[in-house]
Design brief:
There is one protein chain. This protein is α/β, with parallel strands linked by helices. It has a single domain, classed as P-loop containing nucleotide triphosphate hydrolases (Rossmann fold, 3-Layer(aba) Sandwich). The chain is built from four helices and four strands. A two-stranded parallel sheet has the order 1-2. A two-stranded parallel sheet has the order 3-4. It starts with a strand and ends in a 20-residue tail after the last helix.
Length: about 140
């Protein structure tokens, strides 16, 4: 397992490396964690768009992806600049199975994820934490 990017990286992650890392995963079957937390939102969006498109077009063997903070990459409301990324994620979710791709989307607030993709999940799991201000007082 190789961790790319983030504070605990084995190797750094560049915003321009989306296609390169997708090729590495497809060609070498390298188990990897891609931590985009140190990238700006726009840089993370570019990285994810490039890697998701490349994975969808190249992969043919079984591959399971886990997309944490899915609402950042498949939001309910997206601006025009995010349409390409949303389209790439939609391809992975809707059509990826034919290419060997399974996808688990994780979000703290599933209502912030695009409804059309959230309804495609086999078993949405939304643990709820009730904030003290929401607990009825006796």
């Amino acid at each position: 397992m190789v961790i790319f990017g983030g504070d605990h990286a084995d190797l750094p992650l560049a915003e321009t490396a989306g296609e390169l890392l997708a090729d590495l995963v497809v060609d070498e079957r390298v188990p990897a964690v891609l931590d985009l937390s140190t990238l700006s939102k726009s840089a993370a969006r570019r990285f994810m768009t490039d890697s998701a498109e490349r994975l969808y077009h190249r992969n043919r063997d079984p591959l399971h992806l886990v997309l944490d903070e899915a609402d950042a990459f498949a939001p309910q409301r997206t601006d025009p600049g995010g349409q390409r990324l949303l389209g790439a994620i939609e391809d992975l979710v809707r059509r990826g199975r034919a290419r060997g791709i399974g996808l688990t989307m994780i979000s703290q607030r599933t209502v912030d994820c695009t409804f059309s993709l959230a309804t495609l999940t086999a078993r949405p799991c939304s643990p709820t934490v009730v904030a003290p201000s929401r607990v009825a007082r006796d």
